[in-house]
Amino acid sequence: MESAGADGREDANSATDELRPPQGAGAEPAVSGRYVADLIAAIHDSADKLARGHTSRGDLKILSRTLRELRYAFKVFAPYRRKRKVAVFGSARTTPGDACFKQALEFGRRMAECGWFVVTGAGGGIMEAGHQGAGRENSMGLNILLPFEQATNPVFAGDPKLVHMKYFFTRKLVFVKESNAICLLPGGFGTLDEGLEVLTLLQTGKRDMVPVVFLDQPGGTYWRSFMDFVSRHLLGGGMIAAQDRSLLKVTDKVDEAVAEIRCFFRIYHSMRYVREKTVFRLNAPPDKTALERIGDEFSGILAKGGFSIRGPLSAERDEPELAHLPRLVFHFNRRDFGRLRQLIDWLNAHVEIGGGAARFAAGAGPDDSSESTTTCPDSEQPDE
Fold it and tell me: Top-level CATH class of 82-264?
């Protein structure tokens, strides 16, 4: 058994692994030893090279802590991998009477009603509001260890789905890896850092596409001022492309923020790269006419060939729970990620569900069949 901290939670500093399988809805089955043996061997090889290379104790402490933090965080999230999650970022200093606090609370409540988990930094302010809205049972947390301002909020303190982390970079990695959507409310340097990192990862293809919403208080100008800066200096200076603005949605309405996230998964389900091919898994396939329109309107993102509809590729056998979903397969140029997002928006706006939307996966949580009737706007052009 791993040791527990003073409040009963399991500590990421613990050195041993418990042997029992993860508990909870959607727990993943044990992976065969042969399937991961080469990766475990690579970790051992790296450790041996560190020993032979006379690596300093300071460097080893960073590596050791990083590996332990990530191992523990992956373990906590593993039982909930098939549960959709939205990460909520924002200021820890926002007070309960603030309009942004109320927005975050309402957003958390609405997403939980749709069957989603809300993941925050587990501190106060916007983080506490998101947890309060979603409820403890629909929340997860990645708390950062700081000498000030970051005690776990009372809504989520002591929950087994809470992870304490020392490093911001490991914390952000887990946020981005484990979340299916991102919502940012006004905040300080940390919030801007989190938002810009997500956008950078999407723009460069280091993260599969997810919806990103910048949510302000009603009538607020925080994010509109940010977008003015982006348009004037980044776009105006040729540092980003116009298509890159499609990677995010700015709104001051909770309804629009929720709709943006839900619409993203109306037809589009998930994606995967299989060697040179990009594979979109879909809840319903485009018909012949729609496929021809896709070929006409999005040919510029192709490295070669065209778009085709087919079943799962042989390399996808490790995800049998997705085998029933149709695939849109094409050779993406791995460059125009803003246009790739626009393709997802086009599919969601123009393809009909037919017999009903496929579920995210078995055990994914409450039925959210209303997604199949959600009207999604045609979002080929970026928001101004």
Answer: alpha beta
